[in-house]
UniProtKB/TrEMBL annotation:
Record-annotated X8 domain positions: 363-446
Record carries keyword Cell division: no
Domain of life from the UniProt record: Eukaryota
Organism in which the protein naturally occurs: Capsicum annuum
Record InterPro entries: GH, Glyco_hydro_17, Glyco_hydro_17_plant, X8
Protein name: glucan endo-1,3-beta-D-glucosidase
Catalytic activity, EC: 3.2.1.39
Top-level EC class: hydrolase
Amino acid sequence: MAHIKMLIWVCCLALWTSFAFGIGVNWGTQAAQTLHPSTIVQMLKDNKIDKVKLFDSDHWTVKYFANTGIEVMVGIPNNQLGKFASDYDFAKEWVKNNVSTHLYNGGVNIKFVAVGNEPFLKSYNGSFLKSTFPALQNVQKALNAVGLGDKIKATIPQNADVYDSGNGGPSNGNFRSDIRDLMQNICRFFKENNAPFLVNIYPFLSLNENKHFPVEFAFFDGTSKPVKDNGISYTNMFDANLDTLVVSMRKANCAGVKIIVGEIGWPTDGDLYGNVTMAKKFYSGFFKKIATKKGTPLYPGYIEYYLFSLTDENQKSIAPGSFERHWGIFKYDGQPKFPMDITGQGRETMPVGAKNIKYLEKKWCILNKYAQDIGKLPSSVQYACSRSDCTATSYGGSCNKLDANGNISYAFNMYFQMNGQDVESCVFDGMAQIVQTNASIGSCLFPLGLDSAGARIGLDSMINILVGFFLFLALL
Ligand SMILES: *[C@@H]1O[C@H](CO)[C@@H](O)[C@H](O)[C@H]1NC(C)=O
Ligand SMILES: *[C@@H]1O[C@H](CO)[C@@H](O)[C@H](O)[C@H]1NC(C)=O
Ligand SMILES: *[C@@H]1O[C@H](CO)[C@@H](O)[C@H](O)[C@H]1NC(C)=O
Ligand SMILES: *[C@@H]1O[C@H](CO)[C@@H](O)[C@H](O)[C@H]1NC(C)=O
Ligand SMILES: *[C@@H]1O[C@H](CO)[C@@H](O)[C@H](O)[C@H]1NC(C)=O
Protein backbone atom coordinates (compact mmCIF):
# COMPACT_ATOMS: atom_id res chain seq x y z
CA MET A 1 0.00 0.00 0.00
CA ALA A 2 2.72 2.39 1.00
CA HIS A 3 4.44 1.59 -2.24
CA ILE A 4 1.39 2.40 -4.27
CA LYS A 5 0.92 5.63 -2.37
CA MET A 6 4.53 6.47 -3.02
CA LEU A 7 4.10 5.67 -6.68
CA ILE A 8 1.04 7.89 -6.94
CA TRP A 9 2.96 10.64 -5.25
CA VAL A 10 5.93 10.41 -7.60
CA CYS A 11 3.60 10.19 -10.54
CA CYS A 12 1.55 13.20 -9.48
CA LEU A 13 4.66 15.18 -8.70
CA ALA A 14 6.04 14.40 -12.13
CA LEU A 15 2.78 15.44 -13.78
CA TRP A 16 2.54 18.54 -11.65
CA THR A 17 6.07 19.68 -12.40
CA SER A 18 5.73 19.03 -16.07
CA PHE A 19 2.44 20.91 -16.31
CA ALA A 20 3.09 23.73 -13.91
CA PHE A 21 6.65 24.48 -14.93
CA GLY A 22 6.63 23.77 -18.63
CA ILE A 23 8.93 25.63 -20.95
CA GLY A 24 7.32 27.35 -23.90
CA VAL A 25 8.51 28.79 -27.20
CA ASN A 26 7.00 30.82 -29.98
CA TRP A 27 7.30 29.30 -33.41
CA GLY A 28 6.84 31.79 -36.22
CA THR A 29 7.14 30.82 -39.86
CA GLN A 30 7.85 34.07 -41.70
CA ALA A 31 10.83 32.60 -43.51
CA ALA A 32 11.64 31.81 -47.12
CA GLN A 33 12.02 28.14 -46.29
CA THR A 34 10.55 26.86 -43.05
CA LEU A 35 11.37 23.70 -41.17
CA HIS A 36 8.94 20.83 -41.37
CA PRO A 37 6.57 20.62 -38.37
CA SER A 38 7.75 17.07 -37.62
CA THR A 39 11.30 18.43 -37.39
CA ILE A 40 10.07 21.12 -35.01
CA VAL A 41 8.27 18.55 -32.85
CA GLN A 42 11.48 16.54 -32.56
CA MET A 43 13.49 19.67 -31.67
CA LEU A 44 11.01 20.54 -28.93
CA LYS A 45 11.15 17.01 -27.50
CA ASP A 46 14.95 16.85 -27.68
CA ASN A 47 15.21 20.11 -25.76
CA LYS A 48 12.45 19.32 -23.25
CA ILE A 49 10.33 22.23 -24.45
CA ASP A 50 6.72 21.29 -23.83
CA LYS A 51 4.65 24.26 -24.94
CA VAL A 52 4.46 25.95 -28.31
CA LYS A 53 2.77 29.19 -29.31
CA LEU A 54 1.77 29.49 -32.96
CA PHE A 55 0.64 32.57 -34.87
CA ASP A 56 -2.13 30.89 -36.83
CA SER A 57 -4.09 27.67 -36.83
CA ASP A 58 -2.86 26.17 -40.09
CA HIS A 59 -4.37 22.69 -40.12
CA TRP A 60 -1.45 20.96 -41.79
CA THR A 61 0.95 22.35 -39.14
CA VAL A 62 -1.21 21.85 -36.05
CA LYS A 63 -1.90 18.19 -36.80
CA TYR A 64 1.78 17.32 -36.34
CA PHE A 65 1.46 18.14 -32.63
CA ALA A 66 -1.06 15.33 -32.16
CA ASN A 67 -0.05 12.67 -29.66
CA THR A 68 3.13 14.53 -28.67
CA GLY A 69 1.96 15.84 -25.29
CA ILE A 70 3.14 19.28 -26.39
CA GLU A 71 0.75 21.99 -25.25
CA VAL A 72 -0.32 24.19 -28.16
CA MET A 73 -1.53 27.77 -28.39
CA VAL A 74 -3.12 28.42 -31.77
CA GLY A 75 -3.50 31.96 -33.05
CA ILE A 76 -5.90 34.17 -34.96
CA PRO A 77 -4.12 36.85 -37.03
CA ASN A 78 -5.11 40.50 -36.56
CA ASN A 79 -6.54 40.83 -40.04
CA GLN A 80 -9.23 38.29 -39.17
CA LEU A 81 -10.40 39.95 -35.96
CA GLY A 82 -13.11 41.89 -37.78
CA LYS A 83 -14.79 38.71 -38.99
CA PHE A 84 -14.68 37.12 -35.53
CA ALA A 85 -16.04 40.28 -33.94
CA SER A 86 -19.01 40.73 -36.25
CA ASP A 87 -20.03 37.13 -36.80
CA TYR A 88 -20.50 34.70 -33.90
CA ASP A 89 -21.40 31.92 -36.34
CA PHE A 90 -18.03 32.38 -37.99
CA ALA A 91 -16.35 32.00 -34.59
CA LYS A 92 -18.35 28.79 -34.02
CA GLU A 93 -17.33 27.42 -37.42
CA TRP A 94 -13.73 28.34 -36.75
CA VAL A 95 -13.72 26.55 -33.40
CA LYS A 96 -15.21 23.50 -35.04
CA ASN A 97 -12.79 23.44 -37.99
CA ASN A 98 -9.62 24.63 -36.32
CA VAL A 99 -9.88 23.51 -32.70
CA SER A 100 -12.43 20.73 -32.09
CA THR A 101 -11.20 18.82 -35.11
CA HIS A 102 -7.84 18.23 -33.38
CA LEU A 103 -9.30 17.09 -30.06
CA TYR A 104 -9.87 13.39 -30.70
CA ASN A 105 -8.35 10.80 -28.38
CA GLY A 106 -4.59 11.11 -28.92
CA GLY A 107 -5.07 14.41 -30.71
CA VAL A 108 -3.56 17.84 -30.16
CA ASN A 109 -3.30 19.29 -26.66
CA ILE A 110 -4.68 22.76 -27.48
CA LYS A 111 -4.80 24.92 -24.36
CA PHE A 112 -5.12 28.48 -25.62
CA VAL A 113 -6.39 30.49 -28.53
CA ALA A 114 -4.45 33.72 -29.05
CA VAL A 115 -6.95 36.23 -30.40
CA GLY A 116 -4.87 38.67 -32.47
CA ASN A 117 -1.23 39.47 -31.89
CA GLU A 118 -0.29 42.71 -30.15
CA PRO A 119 -3.39 44.32 -31.68
CA PHE A 120 -3.06 47.56 -29.71
CA LEU A 121 0.44 48.44 -30.90
CA LYS A 122 0.51 52.17 -31.55
CA SER A 123 1.87 51.54 -35.05
CA TYR A 124 -1.48 49.95 -36.01
CA ASN A 125 -3.11 53.36 -35.58
CA GLY A 126 -6.02 51.90 -33.64
CA SER A 127 -7.08 49.61 -36.51
CA PHE A 128 -8.03 46.77 -34.15
CA LEU A 129 -9.41 48.72 -31.20
CA LYS A 130 -13.02 48.00 -32.06
CA SER A 131 -12.78 44.38 -33.13
CA THR A 132 -10.40 42.77 -30.64
CA PHE A 133 -12.59 42.54 -27.53
CA PRO A 134 -15.75 41.37 -29.35
CA ALA A 135 -13.62 38.81 -31.21
CA LEU A 136 -12.22 37.57 -27.89
CA GLN A 137 -15.73 37.29 -26.44
CA ASN A 138 -17.05 35.41 -29.47
CA VAL A 139 -14.17 32.94 -29.46
CA GLN A 140 -14.54 32.18 -25.75
CA LYS A 141 -18.31 31.91 -26.13
CA ALA A 142 -17.88 29.50 -29.04
CA LEU A 143 -15.44 27.42 -26.99
CA ASN A 144 -17.88 27.39 -24.06
CA ALA A 145 -20.76 26.41 -26.34
CA VAL A 146 -19.08 23.14 -27.30
CA GLY A 147 -18.03 22.42 -23.73
CA LEU A 148 -14.36 23.33 -24.21
CA GLY A 149 -14.41 26.49 -22.10
CA ASP A 150 -12.87 24.87 -19.03
CA LYS A 151 -9.96 23.39 -20.93
CA ILE A 152 -9.26 26.00 -23.60
CA LYS A 153 -8.98 29.70 -22.90
CA ALA A 154 -9.07 32.58 -25.34
CA THR A 155 -6.60 35.34 -24.58
CA ILE A 156 -4.78 38.22 -26.32
CA PRO A 157 -1.00 38.49 -26.56
CA GLN A 158 -0.37 42.14 -25.70
CA ASN A 159 2.66 44.32 -26.23
CA ALA A 160 3.93 45.81 -22.98
CA ASP A 161 2.99 49.34 -24.00
CA VAL A 162 -0.70 48.73 -23.26
CA TYR A 163 0.31 49.93 -19.80
CA ASP A 164 2.81 52.43 -18.47
CA SER A 165 3.89 54.08 -15.27
CA GLY A 166 3.88 57.71 -16.36
CA ASN A 167 7.00 59.28 -14.94
CA GLY A 168 6.88 57.16 -11.81
CA GLY A 169 7.87 53.60 -10.93
CA PRO A 170 5.77 50.42 -11.16
CA SER A 171 3.58 51.57 -8.23
CA ASN A 172 2.33 54.30 -10.54
CA GLY A 173 1.32 51.79 -13.24
CA ASN A 174 -1.95 51.90 -15.15
CA PHE A 175 -3.34 50.81 -18.47
CA ARG A 176 -2.53 53.29 -21.24
CA SER A 177 -4.90 56.23 -20.96
CA ASP A 178 -6.21 56.06 -24.56
CA ILE A 179 -7.28 52.41 -24.15
CA ARG A 180 -7.79 52.22 -20.39
CA ASP A 181 -11.50 51.33 -20.35
CA LEU A 182 -11.00 48.75 -23.06
CA MET A 183 -8.04 47.11 -21.31
CA GLN A 184 -9.85 47.10 -17.98
CA ASN A 185 -12.88 45.40 -19.55
CA ILE A 186 -10.69 42.84 -21.27
CA CYS A 187 -8.85 42.14 -18.05
CA ARG A 188 -12.09 41.66 -16.11
CA PHE A 189 -13.30 39.34 -18.87
CA PHE A 190 -10.17 37.23 -18.27
CA LYS A 191 -10.98 37.16 -14.58
CA GLU A 192 -14.55 35.98 -15.18
CA ASN A 193 -13.34 33.26 -17.53
CA ASN A 194 -10.29 32.24 -15.57
CA ALA A 195 -8.15 33.05 -18.61
CA PRO A 196 -4.59 34.40 -18.42
CA PHE A 197 -3.24 37.82 -19.38
CA LEU A 198 -0.48 37.41 -21.97
CA VAL A 199 2.17 40.09 -22.19
CA ASN A 200 5.30 40.35 -24.31
CA ILE A 201 8.22 41.87 -22.41
CA TYR A 202 11.40 42.95 -24.21
CA PRO A 203 14.24 44.51 -22.23
CA PHE A 204 16.19 44.51 -25.51
CA LEU A 205 13.69 46.88 -27.11
CA SER A 206 13.90 49.28 -24.18
CA LEU A 207 17.64 49.34 -24.65
CA ASN A 208 17.31 49.65 -28.40
CA GLU A 209 14.81 52.50 -28.29
CA ASN A 210 16.45 54.59 -25.58
CA LYS A 211 20.11 55.59 -25.68
CA HIS A 212 19.99 56.49 -21.99
CA PHE A 213 18.58 53.15 -20.85
CA PRO A 214 21.03 51.66 -18.33
CA VAL A 215 22.41 48.56 -20.06
CA GLU A 216 22.72 46.41 -16.96
CA PHE A 217 19.02 47.01 -16.17
CA ALA A 218 18.16 44.95 -19.27
CA PHE A 219 19.87 41.90 -17.78
CA PHE A 220 19.55 39.96 -14.53
CA ASP A 221 23.03 40.27 -13.07
CA GLY A 222 22.31 43.13 -10.68
CA THR A 223 23.08 46.81 -11.00
CA SER A 224 24.88 49.43 -9.01
CA LYS A 225 21.89 51.75 -9.40
CA PRO A 226 18.67 49.94 -8.50
CA VAL A 227 15.43 51.84 -9.06
CA LYS A 228 13.67 52.49 -5.73
CA ASP A 229 9.91 52.51 -5.87
CA ASN A 230 7.51 52.49 -2.96
CA GLY A 231 10.00 50.68 -0.74
CA ILE A 232 10.91 48.14 -3.40
CA SER A 233 14.32 48.06 -5.04
CA TYR A 234 14.25 47.03 -8.72
CA THR A 235 17.45 45.71 -10.28
CA ASN A 236 16.10 44.72 -13.70
CA MET A 237 13.63 45.96 -16.26
CA PHE A 238 11.70 42.68 -16.43
CA ASP A 239 10.59 42.87 -12.78
CA ALA A 240 9.74 46.56 -13.02
CA ASN A 241 7.74 46.02 -16.19
CA LEU A 242 5.76 43.04 -14.93
CA ASP A 243 4.99 44.82 -11.67
CA THR A 244 3.70 47.81 -13.60
CA LEU A 245 1.18 45.42 -15.12
CA VAL A 246 0.31 44.00 -11.69
CA VAL A 247 -0.47 47.50 -10.40
CA SER A 248 -2.47 48.31 -13.56
CA MET A 249 -4.51 45.16 -12.98
CA ARG A 250 -5.17 46.02 -9.35
CA LYS A 251 -6.54 49.38 -10.46
CA ALA A 252 -8.78 47.60 -12.97
CA ASN A 253 -10.22 45.28 -10.31
CA CYS A 254 -8.83 42.26 -12.04
CA ALA A 255 -6.02 41.40 -9.65
CA GLY A 256 -5.48 37.65 -9.46
CA VAL A 257 -5.65 37.08 -13.19
CA LYS A 258 -2.70 34.87 -14.10
CA ILE A 259 0.06 36.60 -16.04
CA ILE A 260 1.91 34.65 -18.71
CA VAL A 261 4.87 36.16 -20.54
CA GLY A 262 3.84 35.54 -24.15
CA GLU A 263 7.17 36.52 -25.65
CA ILE A 264 10.59 37.10 -24.16
CA GLY A 265 14.03 36.83 -25.72
CA TRP A 266 17.05 38.56 -27.18
CA PRO A 267 18.16 38.81 -30.83
CA THR A 268 21.62 37.71 -31.96
CA ASP A 269 22.33 39.79 -35.05
CA GLY A 270 21.54 43.00 -36.88
CA ASP A 271 22.12 45.37 -33.96
CA LEU A 272 24.89 46.72 -31.76
CA TYR A 273 23.42 44.92 -28.74
CA GLY A 274 22.01 42.08 -30.76
CA ASN A 275 24.76 39.49 -30.68
CA VAL A 276 25.31 36.02 -29.30
CA THR A 277 27.27 37.27 -26.28
CA MET A 278 24.46 39.55 -25.13
CA ALA A 279 21.76 36.98 -25.89
CA LYS A 280 23.57 34.29 -23.92
CA LYS A 281 23.93 36.68 -20.98
CA PHE A 282 20.24 37.56 -21.12
CA TYR A 283 18.93 34.01 -21.36
CA SER A 284 21.33 32.73 -18.73
CA GLY A 285 20.10 35.34 -16.24
CA PHE A 286 16.48 34.83 -17.20
CA PHE A 287 16.53 31.03 -16.82
CA LYS A 288 18.25 31.28 -13.44
CA LYS A 289 15.74 33.82 -12.27
CA ILE A 290 12.75 31.74 -13.39
CA ALA A 291 14.21 28.63 -11.77
CA THR A 292 14.20 30.29 -8.34
CA LYS A 293 10.39 30.47 -8.65
CA LYS A 294 10.56 33.75 -6.76
CA GLY A 295 8.85 35.78 -9.46
CA THR A 296 8.83 39.54 -9.11
CA PRO A 297 8.31 41.66 -5.98
CA LEU A 298 4.57 42.03 -6.74
CA TYR A 299 4.05 38.74 -8.58
CA PRO A 300 5.77 36.08 -6.51
CA GLY A 301 5.96 32.46 -7.66
CA TYR A 302 6.73 30.68 -10.87
CA ILE A 303 6.26 32.71 -14.04
CA GLU A 304 5.12 30.90 -17.16
CA TYR A 305 6.72 32.13 -20.37
CA TYR A 306 7.18 31.51 -24.06
CA LEU A 307 10.60 32.29 -25.49
CA PHE A 308 10.77 34.42 -28.58
CA SER A 309 11.70 32.68 -30.62
CA LEU A 310 12.48 29.14 -31.68
CA THR A 311 14.14 29.95 -35.03
CA ASP A 312 15.18 32.99 -37.03
CA GLU A 313 12.67 34.27 -39.58
CA ASN A 314 14.26 35.86 -42.63
CA GLN A 315 11.05 37.39 -43.96
CA LYS A 316 9.81 39.24 -40.88
CA SER A 317 9.16 42.94 -41.24
CA ILE A 318 12.24 44.94 -40.30
CA ALA A 319 10.33 48.14 -39.59
CA PRO A 320 11.39 47.94 -35.91
CA GLY A 321 15.01 47.15 -36.87
CA SER A 322 17.30 44.66 -38.61
CA PHE A 323 17.43 42.53 -35.45
CA GLU A 324 13.80 41.42 -36.11
CA ARG A 325 14.96 38.50 -38.24
CA HIS A 326 17.36 37.16 -35.63
CA TRP A 327 15.31 36.33 -32.54
CA GLY A 328 15.82 32.57 -32.77
CA ILE A 329 17.60 30.53 -30.15
CA PHE A 330 18.16 28.40 -33.25
CA LYS A 331 19.34 29.62 -36.66
CA TYR A 332 17.17 29.55 -39.79
CA ASP A 333 18.21 25.92 -40.28
CA GLY A 334 17.38 24.78 -36.75
CA GLN A 335 21.01 24.66 -35.59
CA PRO A 336 21.76 26.07 -32.13
CA LYS A 337 23.54 29.39 -31.68
CA PHE A 338 24.91 29.25 -28.15
CA PRO A 339 24.92 27.07 -25.03
CA MET A 340 22.14 27.47 -22.49
CA ASP A 341 20.48 25.68 -19.60
CA ILE A 342 16.75 26.14 -19.85
CA THR A 343 16.32 24.62 -16.39
CA GLY A 344 18.34 27.49 -14.90
CA GLN A 345 20.85 25.26 -13.11
CA GLY A 346 23.75 26.94 -14.91
CA ARG A 347 24.87 23.73 -16.65
CA GLU A 348 24.99 25.29 -20.07
CA THR A 349 25.22 23.00 -23.08
CA MET A 350 24.45 23.41 -26.75
CA PRO A 351 20.73 22.85 -27.39
CA VAL A 352 19.95 19.86 -29.63
CA GLY A 353 19.64 21.06 -33.21
CA ALA A 354 17.16 20.05 -35.89
CA LYS A 355 17.91 16.68 -37.41
CA ASN A 356 18.01 15.58 -41.04
CA ILE A 357 18.02 19.09 -42.44
CA LYS A 358 18.26 19.08 -46.21
CA TYR A 359 20.19 22.01 -47.64
CA LEU A 360 20.23 23.10 -51.23
CA GLU A 361 23.38 22.20 -53.18
CA LYS A 362 26.74 23.65 -52.18
CA LYS A 363 26.42 26.57 -54.56
CA TRP A 364 26.73 30.27 -53.87
CA CYS A 365 25.97 33.34 -55.98
CA ILE A 366 28.56 36.12 -55.78
CA LEU A 367 29.81 39.19 -57.64
CA ASN A 368 31.40 38.12 -60.89
CA LYS A 369 35.06 38.98 -60.48
CA TYR A 370 35.22 40.18 -64.10
CA ALA A 371 32.20 42.43 -63.63
CA GLN A 372 32.57 45.82 -65.28
CA ASP A 373 30.69 48.95 -64.42
CA ILE A 374 30.17 48.23 -60.73
CA GLY A 375 28.69 51.73 -60.49
CA LYS A 376 25.38 50.31 -61.75
CA LEU A 377 25.19 47.81 -58.93
CA PRO A 378 23.60 49.69 -56.02
CA SER A 379 20.15 49.28 -57.55
CA SER A 380 20.72 45.54 -58.05
CA VAL A 381 21.89 45.21 -54.47
CA GLN A 382 18.89 47.13 -53.21
CA TYR A 383 16.62 44.97 -55.31
CA ALA A 384 18.19 41.76 -54.01
CA CYS A 385 18.12 42.88 -50.39
CA SER A 386 14.53 44.09 -50.51
CA ARG A 387 13.49 40.65 -51.73
CA SER A 388 15.74 38.61 -49.49
CA ASP A 389 17.54 39.40 -46.23
CA CYS A 390 20.67 41.50 -45.82
CA THR A 391 20.07 42.38 -42.17
CA ALA A 392 23.35 40.76 -41.08
CA THR A 393 25.21 43.50 -42.99
CA SER A 394 23.61 46.32 -41.01
CA TYR A 395 25.37 48.32 -38.30
CA GLY A 396 26.46 46.00 -35.47
CA GLY A 397 25.60 42.94 -37.55
CA SER A 398 27.79 39.88 -38.12
CA CYS A 399 28.47 40.90 -41.74
CA ASN A 400 28.85 44.64 -41.24
CA LYS A 401 32.59 44.58 -41.80
CA LEU A 402 32.43 43.34 -45.40
CA ASP A 403 34.04 45.52 -48.06
CA ALA A 404 31.99 46.95 -50.94
CA ASN A 405 32.40 43.82 -53.10
CA GLY A 406 31.58 41.60 -50.12
CA ASN A 407 28.36 43.52 -49.61
CA ILE A 408 27.34 42.95 -53.22
CA SER A 409 28.11 39.24 -53.06
CA TYR A 410 26.20 38.92 -49.79
CA ALA A 411 23.09 40.46 -51.33
CA PHE A 412 23.33 38.34 -54.49
CA ASN A 413 23.76 35.15 -52.47
CA MET A 414 20.84 35.78 -50.13
CA TYR A 415 18.59 36.48 -53.09
CA PHE A 416 19.80 33.33 -54.84
CA GLN A 417 19.37 31.07 -51.78
CA MET A 418 15.98 32.46 -50.78
CA ASN A 419 14.81 31.82 -54.34
CA GLY A 420 15.71 28.19 -54.05
CA GLN A 421 18.97 28.62 -56.05
CA ASP A 422 17.00 29.29 -59.19
CA VAL A 423 19.64 29.98 -61.90
CA GLU A 424 17.58 32.96 -63.08
CA SER A 425 18.06 34.57 -59.68
CA CYS A 426 21.84 34.78 -60.11
CA VAL A 427 22.10 36.98 -63.20
CA PHE A 428 22.01 40.65 -62.23
CA ASP A 429 22.90 41.89 -65.73
CA GLY A 430 25.81 39.47 -65.96
CA MET A 431 27.38 40.87 -62.82
CA ALA A 432 26.83 37.68 -60.83
CA GLN A 433 28.26 34.18 -60.98
CA ILE A 434 27.56 30.86 -59.31
CA VAL A 435 30.49 29.27 -57.48
CA GLN A 436 30.93 25.99 -55.66
CA THR A 437 33.42 27.12 -53.05
CA ASN A 438 32.09 28.37 -49.76
CA ALA A 439 31.67 32.13 -50.18
CA SER A 440 31.56 32.93 -46.44
CA ILE A 441 33.98 35.69 -45.43
CA GLY A 442 35.53 35.48 -41.96
CA SER A 443 32.79 35.35 -39.35
CA CYS A 444 30.19 36.42 -41.93
CA LEU A 445 28.23 33.34 -42.95
CA PHE A 446 26.94 33.04 -46.51
CA PRO A 447 24.16 30.56 -45.75
CA LEU A 448 22.81 27.86 -48.02
CA GLY A 449 19.07 27.74 -48.57
CA LEU A 450 16.95 24.91 -47.23
CA ASP A 451 15.29 22.30 -49.33
CA SER A 452 12.07 22.65 -47.36
CA ALA A 453 9.73 21.59 -50.14
CA GLY A 454 11.82 18.44 -50.37
CA ALA A 455 11.42 17.85 -46.65
CA ARG A 456 7.66 18.08 -46.91
CA ILE A 457 7.46 15.70 -49.85
CA GLY A 458 10.15 13.55 -48.27
CA LEU A 459 8.12 12.83 -45.18
CA ASP A 460 4.82 12.29 -46.93
CA SER A 461 6.33 9.87 -49.41
CA MET A 462 8.04 8.14 -46.49
CA ILE A 463 4.60 7.57 -44.96
CA ASN A 464 3.32 6.32 -48.31
CA ILE A 465 6.20 3.88 -48.52
CA LEU A 466 5.48 2.65 -44.99
CA VAL A 467 1.77 2.28 -45.72
CA GLY A 468 2.67 0.44 -48.91
CA PHE A 469 4.99 -1.83 -46.98
CA PHE A 470 2.32 -2.75 -44.43
CA LEU A 471 -0.23 -3.35 -47.18
CA PHE A 472 2.32 -5.62 -48.79
CA LEU A 473 2.77 -7.51 -45.49
CA ALA A 474 -0.99 -7.77 -45.07
CA LEU A 475 -1.32 -9.28 -48.55
CA LEU A 476 1.25 -11.92 -47.67
C1 LIG B 1 -10.36 27.69 -39.80
O1 LIG B 1 -11.77 27.77 -39.92
C2 LIG B 1 -12.26 28.64 -40.91
C3 LIG B 1 -13.77 28.71 -40.78
O2 LIG B 1 -14.35 27.48 -40.69
C4 LIG B 1 -11.77 28.17 -42.25
O3 LIG B 1 -12.27 29.00 -43.29
C5 LIG B 1 -10.27 28.19 -42.25
O4 LIG B 1 -9.76 27.72 -43.46
C6 LIG B 1 -9.71 27.35 -41.11
N1 LIG B 1 -8.25 27.44 -41.03
C7 LIG B 1 -7.54 28.50 -40.61
C8 LIG B 1 -6.06 28.35 -40.65
O5 LIG B 1 -8.06 29.51 -40.20
C1 LIG C 1 -0.36 54.50 -39.39
O1 LIG C 1 -0.22 55.86 -39.68
C2 LIG C 1 1.04 56.24 -40.21
C3 LIG C 1 1.10 57.75 -40.32
O2 LIG C 1 -0.11 58.28 -40.75
C4 LIG C 1 1.25 55.53 -41.55
O3 LIG C 1 2.52 55.85 -42.08
C5 LIG C 1 1.15 54.03 -41.34
O4 LIG C 1 1.24 53.36 -42.57
C6 LIG C 1 -0.16 53.65 -40.65
N1 LIG C 1 -0.12 52.24 -40.31
C7 LIG C 1 -1.15 51.42 -40.47
C8 LIG C 1 -0.94 49.99 -40.07
O5 LIG C 1 -2.21 51.77 -40.92
C1 LIG D 1 28.18 42.27 -28.35
O1 LIG D 1 27.63 43.52 -28.05
C2 LIG D 1 28.26 44.22 -27.00
C3 LIG D 1 27.46 45.50 -26.78
O2 LIG D 1 27.39 46.24 -27.94
C4 LIG D 1 29.72 44.47 -27.34
O3 LIG D 1 30.37 45.11 -26.26
C5 LIG D 1 30.41 43.15 -27.62
O4 LIG D 1 31.73 43.38 -28.08
C6 LIG D 1 29.65 42.38 -28.69
N1 LIG D 1 30.24 41.06 -28.80
C7 LIG D 1 30.48 40.48 -29.95
C8 LIG D 1 31.08 39.12 -29.89
O5 LIG D 1 30.22 41.01 -31.00
C1 LIG E 1 28.17 47.39 -46.72
O1 LIG E 1 26.77 47.49 -46.45
C2 LIG E 1 26.43 47.95 -45.14
C3 LIG E 1 24.94 47.85 -44.97
O2 LIG E 1 24.26 48.52 -45.97
C4 LIG E 1 26.98 49.36 -44.95
O3 LIG E 1 26.72 49.79 -43.62
C5 LIG E 1 28.49 49.35 -45.20
O4 LIG E 1 29.00 50.67 -45.12
C6 LIG E 1 28.80 48.77 -46.57
N1 LIG E 1 30.25 48.69 -46.73
C7 LIG E 1 30.92 49.23 -47.76
C8 LIG E 1 32.39 49.12 -47.74
O5 LIG E 1 30.33 49.78 -48.68
C1 LIG F 1 31.05 27.79 -45.07
O1 LIG F 1 31.99 28.37 -44.19
C2 LIG F 1 31.47 28.84 -42.95
C3 LIG F 1 32.54 29.62 -42.23
O2 LIG F 1 33.71 28.91 -42.23
C4 LIG F 1 30.94 27.66 -42.17
O3 LIG F 1 30.42 28.07 -40.93
C5 LIG F 1 29.84 26.98 -43.00
O4 LIG F 1 29.38 25.83 -42.33
C6 LIG F 1 30.38 26.59 -44.38
N1 LIG F 1 29.27 26.12 -45.18
C7 LIG F 1 29.26 24.93 -45.78
C8 LIG F 1 28.03 24.55 -46.53
O5 LIG F 1 30.22 24.18 -45.75
